[in-house]
């Protein structure tokens, strides 16, 4: 089979949250996916998160022929040359660090490179897009962001409220990311972001990863062309170099797991999350992205909508790779000193 | 000041357990100590151990001019060339991995390179030298040793019972260590080891680190020459290349901490450990080794007793360095396969 344009690309999915097994890992290979940011915590505390990480260690051991851990952008390049998929650990919540700033470096040491400041509920760090009132970044949150900046852990505001998102851009000394969400102007979902926040994140050197999650795009019937038009419109707004994918793909979970990621142990009743009482199960995915094996469809869709090859290479993964090159590296001593000063300045100003 | 023979050496202390601060870290530099195996858990569970590790992260940040973490023997060589002291993390108990074999690799990832199978009490893995009956290595213990062999974490039997020690030598596919104890034939302390066990460990390619802890050498009055004679006698028995130091130095703890390391939370009453009701505080250290700054005295003592310079270089650290070169590296795939087979063979034979 001749190698296609897609085969040559570094393809990065900045968020998947699947019930990983041989089959789902092989779907990544089938889709030519070079790297995936996987979720190792959503409500879990520190100890529970270590068990999730050790489940990945076992997968790395058992499926060493097709996957490997990535702690740096260079590891992602290495995976490409080895024909494997690189796995980058990330949190969708700050629950794993509990109330302990020291755990930021502990988890960084274990390879965690991206942390959302909140999941769907207010955290010790900030406010969520599901809360009626978004507190913005807390006292602890300012310290945690400075520490994340120091060690090289990317601040992700995908599930944060708008105020928390804007404050994270301002407080962070390094560019931040929305790994998986779409513009609210495309689809008015609670989880999607205002054009103003997307602009602020990207103007600060950050990135937006477009989600294919059906409830973020207006349902499974949304055609690929419309999804790609959204990307084109956003590129006009912030520049294509700040855009990537974060599909939010979730393979092979049953509905009880959906209850867990929505209700955790914070609620005795049922939470419907982005669903509703009449639509509470896993949604159907669009025909053009049923699994990560369908990534070549998106490459084709972007070319069809008129993006140039270089732009497509960037959106499919090159832009995330460049962002990870900087974002996963520890801050220099000077940067760190600057970060510390800023946190103190904030304190002094209040 | 002209550089002395001691200054040129790679000096390794295979066990210290101090209340580390700037002063105690500077004592290491003053003693020309290149690397120390420090204790990050004695009774602590997984989560608590992470806090101990993060306290070290903070020390690495605050005292970066004099200390650094070592994950490999090469890191120790690097520390020597940078004029810093390398810190190797280790456990004096298996409590941090709880009942979860997956935590072996998690902690290895965090830099833990040595684990005692038991502290003073029977653990989930084996029997202690303080127990009336030593169970030997448990079912879980066999699995954990195989996993330690795979990832590159040294098996340490310093506080284990004799039977557990012999079984560890037999079960481990890689050489093991007694990081800090002396021959019982020198001083009949509960924690000291039989010549037979020392021989078994060393014949298997392992190492013995001599302890200066007063209750292991017959008290603070024991002269340096007698300590060095013990080393010479042991060298005749197993060869000097299997010998090093593991002083068990404990600086700046108060007596309440001694209660913690003896009684943990397993006993409501007072445990006297190696002390007694009339002698329950921290013991006085010998005049020739009050702090790690006194390491040059031991170099001199070994030369005085008649060891050659190469032998002294080995005992002061070169032998540990060579042992760590092999022991801290992950097993090859073949070795791992062999290890797995042996565990199964054991099961089949019983």
Largest interface: A-B, 17 and 17 residues
* CATH C-level label of chain A: Alpha Beta
Instruction: Please state the average pLDDT score of chain A.
Output: 94
How many domains of chain A? 1
Beta-strand content bin of chain A: 5-15%
Oligomer: homodimer
Low-confidence stretches of chain A: 333-350
Report how far apart the termini of chain A are: 63 Å
CATH architectural group of chain A: Alpha-Beta Barrel
* Rg estimate of chain A, integer Å: 19 Å
Protein described:
The structure is a homodimer of 350-residue chains. Chain A contains 14 helices and 9 strands. With 350 residues, chain A is of the alpha/beta class. The first copy, chain A, has a single domain (9-349), classed as Metal-dependent hydrolases (TIM Barrel), CATH 3.20.20.140. In chain A, strands 1, 2, 3, 4, 5 and 6 form a 6-stranded parallel sheet that branches. A 3-stranded parallel sheet of chain A has the order 7-8-9. In chain A, β7 (177-178), α8 (195-203) and β8 (207-210) form a beta-alpha-beta unit. The radius of gyration of chain A is 19 Å and the shape is globular. The N and C termini of chain A lie far apart (63 Å). Mean pLDDT of chain A is 94; it is low at 333-350. The A-B interface holds A 46-47, 50-51, 53-55, 57-58, 100, 102-103, 105-106, 109-111 and B 46-47, 50-51, 53-55, 57-58, 100, 102-103, 105-106, 109-111.
């Amino acid at each position: 089979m001749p190698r296609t344009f897609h085969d040559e690309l570094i393809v990065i999915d900045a968020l998947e949250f699947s019930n990983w097994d041989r089959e789902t890992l092989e779907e990544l290979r089938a889709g030519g996916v070079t790297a995936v940011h996987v979720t190792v915590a959503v409500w879990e505390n520190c100890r529970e998160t270590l068990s999730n990480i050790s489940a990945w260690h076992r997968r790395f051991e058992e499926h060493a022929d097709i996957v490997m851990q990535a702690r740096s952008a260079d590891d992602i390049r290495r995976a490409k040359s080895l024909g494997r998929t690189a796995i980058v650990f990330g949190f969708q919540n700050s629950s794993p660090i509990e109330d302990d700033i020291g755990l930021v470096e502990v988890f960084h040491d274990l390879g965690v490179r991206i942390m959302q400041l909140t999941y769907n509920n207010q955290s010790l760090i900030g406010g969520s897009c599901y809360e009626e009132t978004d507190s913005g970044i807390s006292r602890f949150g300012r310290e945690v962001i400075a520490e994340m900046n120091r060690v090289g852990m990317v601040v992700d505001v995908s599930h944060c409220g708008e105020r928390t998102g804007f404050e994270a851009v301002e407080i962070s000394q390094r560019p931040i990311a929305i790994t998986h969400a779409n513009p609210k102007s495309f689809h008015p979902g609670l989880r999607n972001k205002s054009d103003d926040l997307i602009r602020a994140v990207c103007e600060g050197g950050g990135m937006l990863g477009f989600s294919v999650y059906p409830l973020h795009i207006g349902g499974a019937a949304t055609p690929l062309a419309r999804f790609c038009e959204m990307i084109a419109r956003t590129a006009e707004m912030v520049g294509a170099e700040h855009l990537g994918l974060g599909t939010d793909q979730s393979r092979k979970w049953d509905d009880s797991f959906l209850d867990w990621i929505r209700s955790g142990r914070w609620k005795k009743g049922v939470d419907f999350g982005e669903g509703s009482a009449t639509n509470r199960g896993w949604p159907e995915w669009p025909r053009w992205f049923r699994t990560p094996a369908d990534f070549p469809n998106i490459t084709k869709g972007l070319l069809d909508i008129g993006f140039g090859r270089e732009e497509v290479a960037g959106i499919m993964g090159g832009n995330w790779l460049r962002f990870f090159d900087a974002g996963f590296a520890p801050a220099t001593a000077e940067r760190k000193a600057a970060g510390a000063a800023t946190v103190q300045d904030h304190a002094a100003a209040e």
